[in-house]
Specification:
Chain lengths: 505, 352
């Protein structure tokens, strides 16, 4: 074995009931490398990482750390071996300073010697190029800095092996670049990094090696320089996939939606939307970009009538929607679906069958007291067939489907209702490449049919390829509406951080 | 040894676990009886005899089951929406109170009018008593568990006040009791039990079809799974919640009326006898399924009636009978746990 291999996994197998999440996975991590782990949802990435960080124990297989066979029986053991995980959702105490957050994670003695520790930690953070004010309260920090605190915390614990789980999902392009710089300097200092991401461009830009998992098995490991994106996708999906997202040409029709200076407050009274104005035309996809939590959700809810207290006006084909009940807005042909982070929360009922989910919005249009399920069973059969949803039958509980299939049920239902205005927030959240492509093409087919579409997304590359125009939100304000054909990622990135479009060149 | 969640369970295995639960419960109960110095086998047989031994005892068991079934059905509606209504006790009292007003003061009305008025009044009073916590919750987000619980005490105190003051029977020679109802205001009997049992069976069917087939039932189920999803689907969550909780309260109120006019034949402070709380247990054991509620309530009533019987037949103190009932309940609840989780041996050590 190479002396510079810090982790070696041999034939790791992990089963959950009848499901084999990891099937004889081999993996090795070298000292001083950034190693990407790629795979579709359900390919076993998270299971593997949870084994490394001590949350799961494998059913079979060996773990070697620095050449010695090791049992990682708990997270504490993982940390003692220098393995630190940076989770997607930060585990920070918001009301503490960055310094206290780092210290709390590393309790030493009864009293804290802040002064000495402060010097130590700030030296550590400077050496890797973090620019974080340790005296600053976490609640006042932007997302990128919170993430930096999270990494410093793990480094200060003495981690030599860092696992970053989709760290760029919450970052602007500029913040992502900064993170990559830090990752490179950590690598050069001899740390090893496992990088999990769905964005291939990032994997190509920052990693040294790539391991691909598919259906629980480790398919292949490459040097990043020896492979291109297209080949990677082929390994991830297991077949040829066309990576290009089409921007379907469709005749821009009449003005469908007119939103004029929408403003709204949160439950606690803090403003979440401020003076938001825009139009949507028939046969057009309007993208909405922004850092997570910039008001996307409130915008969607306001348009769908779920936010009764707002100022401004929303008109659909000239008719004023304000004051209408949500169900009336649905009946006028506005379909809104929002896929939250847990992916099930809004739009689907997890414990119900596919058929029962089909009637969620439409059951009230039936006459009488009772529901006739037949038309919905037919609808379920159609959707399952049309979107090739992988399910034993239409009376299968939605929560027992895989993530991609769950979202297909949602998207399929919304598209079938033949809406005039389709609002989709994060429809591909957490989906793998194949399923995402399918959903993009479904959205495009609606566009061709003359539907106006508002697409709220995270991935700027996708927004720029799929949409006609992109509206950028920052702290509830519109910082600009850009032509997707002409804008650049950098420009969008600046707008996401609050610079107005008119002030930029 | 570790405890892990089951992915799914076969019907046979589920039955076996429940069956074993009951067997363990009875065994432990018998051990307890033996320690307490009674012959466990004959006590056990007597328990069954006490519940089902002859027509009169079966009638008694059914009489216990009636308010339990109706109240459990009402509670199950609210529980389906994750609205934790533990105020059925108070809703029963208020229903009984409202019906009693007509039974006491309008007994000269024609029978059909009297019963219509009593039924409507018990529905309305139970619904109103449930509407208070429901309204407070949707309006100001108050905790329904606390509000419904507090309202129980108020309802019981109202009846106490009536019993000791306003409605005290002057003919009772100073005893604090309300006058017995006029014979016209009593529920008729069929097969020796008040006709509440027909109402209960009918309600099981109605609620079953309401939950599985109707729009309203579908909406309730959606809200219970996720209120956010319901909101996104254009369902008026607040309105549905208030109406459903009121229907549940109305059913509890009806149970109160049946209890007053069919069993107690008057209104008194012990009329609800804990049915409102027991119904929470039976509703849960039946997993909120209307048909299962019928079965569970009958078994529960049998346990109560049989327990009462061995109390007198064997001179077993009532506390000991309650311990026995509690043991049975504990085991049955534990078997529910094992339907969802299983115990596995720890994994063999990996590379050592």
């Amino acid at each position: 074995m190479d002396t510079d291999t810090v982790i070696r996994l041999n034939g790791i197998t992990k089963r959950f009931g009848s499901v084999t999440a990891n099937d004889c996975v081999d993996f090795s991590l070298k000292k001083g490398e950034i190693h990407a782990v790629l795979g579709e949802n359900g390919s076993g990435k998270s299971t593997l990482m949870n084994i490394l960080s001590g949350l799961y124990r494998p059913d079979a297989g060996e773990v070697y750390i620095n050449g010695k066979p090791t049992v990682i029986s708990s997270p504490a053991v993982a940390i003692s071996h220098g393995i630190g995980m940076i989770h997607q959702h930060f585990k920070l105490a918001e009301a503490f300073t960055a310094l206290d957050n780092v210290l709390v994670a590393n309790p030493q003695g009864i009293f804290k010697n802040s002064k000495k520790k402060f010097a130590e930690i700030s030296a550590l953070s400077k050496s890797y190029g973090f620019d974080v004010d340790l005296r600053c309260y976490v609640k006042d920090m932007p997302v990128g800095q919170k993430q930096a605190v999270e990494i410093i915390k793990v480094l200060y614990k003495g981690a030599d092996i860092l696992i970053l789980d989709e760290p760029t999902a919450v970052l602007t392009p500029q913040e992502t670049e900064k993170l990559f710089g830090i990752m490179r300097s950590m690598r050069d200092a001899g740390k090893s990094i496992i990088f999990i991401s769905h964005k291939l461009g990032e994997v190509m830009a920052v990693t040294n090696r790539v391991t691909v998992l598919r259906k629980g098995k480790s398919v292949a490991t490459f040097k990043t320089g020896d492979i291109d994106e297209l080949k990677l996708v082929r390994h991830i999906v297991g077949k040829e996939v066309d990576l290009a997202i089409n921007r379907t040409k469709a005749a821009r029709g009449e003005k469908l939606l007119e939103a004029v200076s929408l403003s709204a407050n949160d439950i606690d009274g803090s403003p979440v939307l401020h003076d938001v104005s825009f139009d949507v035309y028939e046969g057009e996809i309007l993208g909405v970009a922004g850092v997570a939590g910039s008001g996307q959700k409130q915008l969607c809810e306001t348009l769908a009538g779920l936010n009764p207290k707002y100022e401004g006006s929303v008109k659909l084909l000239g008719e004023n929607l304000s004051g209408l009940r949500p169900i009336d807005i649905i009946r006028r042909g506005v379909s809104m679906s929002f896929v939250p982070e847990d992916r099930l929360g809004m739009g689907l009922v997890a414990g119900m069958t596919i058929t029962e989910n089909m009637m969620l919005k439409e059951h009230s249009t039936q006459k009488g007291l009772f529901i006739n399920k037949k038309p919905y069973a037919q609808m379920a059969r159609d959707v399952v067939k049309q979107l090739s949803i992988d399910t034993p039958d239409i009376d299968f509980q939605v929560s027992r489907l895989s993530g991609g299939n769950i979202q297909k049920v949602l998207v399929g239902r919304e598209l079938r209702s033949g809406p005039k205005l389709l609002i989709m927030a994060y429809p591909v959240r957490g989906l793998d490449i194949g399923a995402s492509m399918q959903i993009y093409s479904l959205i495009n087919s609606r566009k061709e049919a003359g539907t106006g579409i508002i697409y709220v997304g995270e991935d700027l590359d996708v927004l720029m390829q799929l949409c006609d125009r992109i509206l950028v939100l920052c702290h509830g304000c519109v910082t600009g509406i850009a032509d997707a054909r002409k804008t650049t990622k950098t420009q969008l990135g600046f707008m996401m951080t609050g610079q107005r479009r008119e002030n930029m060149q | 040894m570790r405890i892990v969640a089951r992915d799914s369970i076969s019907g046979r295995k589920a039955f076996l676990i429940r069956f074993l639960g009951v067997v363990c419960a009875l065994l432990t109960g018998m051990i307890f009886l033996a320690i307490a110095g009674f012959d466990p086998f004959s006590a056990m047989i007597s328990l069954l005899e006490g519940a089902f031994g002859n027509g009169r005892r079966i009638a008694k068991t059914v009489e216990f089951a009636i308010p339990l079934v109706i109240t459990s059905l009402g509670i199950s509606l609210a529980f389906r929406m994750k609205f934790w209504n533990i105020g059925a006790e108070g809703q029963i009292c208020m229903g009984a109170f409202a019906a009693s007003y007509f039974a006491l003061f309008c007994a000269d009305w024609p029978v059909w009018l009297l019963f219509s008025a009593m039924t409507a009044a018990s529905f309305a009073a139970g619904a109103l008593w449930a509407a208070i916590p429901a309204f407070l919750k949707v309006k100001w987000g108050t905790n329904e568990t606390l509000v419904t619980l507090m309202l129980n005490y108020i309802a019981i105190k109202i009846i106490q006040y009536l019993q000791y003051n306003a409605w005290k029977d002057p003919g009772a020679r100073g005893f604090p009791k309300i006058a017995m109802f006029d014979a016209k205001a009593l529920l008729p009997q069929i097969f020796g039990v008040n006709i509440g049992w027909i109402v209960a069976i009918g309600l099981i069917a109605v609620i079953y079809f309401f939950i599985t087939r109707s729009k309203g039932g579908y909406r309730i189920n959606v809200i219970g799974e996720s209120a956010d999803t319901a909101r996104y689907a254009g369902i008026n969550v607040h309105k549905t919640m208030v109406i459903t909780v009121c229907i549940g309260g109305a059913l509890a109120g009806l149970a109160g009326m049946i209890q007053a006019t069919g069993v107690e034949r008057t209104l008194n402070e012990t009329l609800s006898a804990g049915y409102g709380y027991t119904a929470i247990i039976t509703a849960w054991l039946a997993r909120l399924n209307p048909v299962a509620i019928g079965i569970v309530c009958i078994l529960f009533a049998a346990l109560t009636q049989g327990g009462n019987f061995i109390q007198t037949a064997y001179n077993i103190p009532s506390a000991a009978a309650s311990v026995f009932q509690g043991l049975v309940l504990l085991f049955v609840l534990a078997s529910e746990f094992f339907l969802r989780y299983k115990i596995v041996r720890s994994l063999p050590r990996g590379a050592q």
